[in-house]
Write a structure and sequence with these properties.
The protein has no helices and twelve strands. The chain is mainly β and about 120 residues long. It has a six-stranded antiparallel sheet, with no helix packed on it. A six-stranded antiparallel sheet has the order 7-6-9-4-11-12, with no helix packed on it. A hairpin with an 8-residue loop joins strand 2 and strand 3. The radius of gyration is 14 Å and the shape is globular. About 20% of the residues are buried.
Length: about 120
């Protein structure tokens, strides 16, 4: 099935963010997963270490993305690449929501600071 319609998206809410999953194994992807993330105002996501490379594209708004200790303020139209094994942090210090498009390999996991592992359903 090469086409995914918006009514096939699955919404997950975790750590204060909203993850809307489009590209995943049950919509026909074998290798990649892609989703839209809404980062609400004043949200600071938990730092985590990713098992696979992730790409980020800012659809709207502004946020601070930190990859292995290096931070950048990203705005609509900006992008970033986080290598596998890197530590990520996301923060929205503005008064408006920010929206990102994220792509990674199917099967991504994230290790949180407390040592627990998150297997995000939007990346499976």
């Amino acid at each position: 099935m090469p086409f995914i319609h918006r009514d096939e998206a699955v919404v997950h809410e975790i750590h204060g963010g909203r993850f809307v999953s489009y590209v995943r194994t049950d919509t026909g992807s074998k290798d990649l997963a892609s989703w839209r993330v809404e980062v609400p105002p004043a949200m600071v996501g938990p730092r985590h270490t990713i098992s696979a490379e992730e790409t980020f594209y800012v659809l709207s708004g502004r946020l601070r993305l930190t990859i292995d200790g290096e931070s950048a303020e990203l705005r609509s139209g900006d992008a970033a690449v986080a290598p596998a094994g890197s530590e990520l942090g996301v923060a929205n210090t503005t008064e408006e929501s920010a929206h990102l498009w994220v792509t990674t390999r199917v099967g991504l996991t994230a290790e949180l600071a407390d040592g627990s592992t998150l297997t995000p359903p939007w990346a499976q």
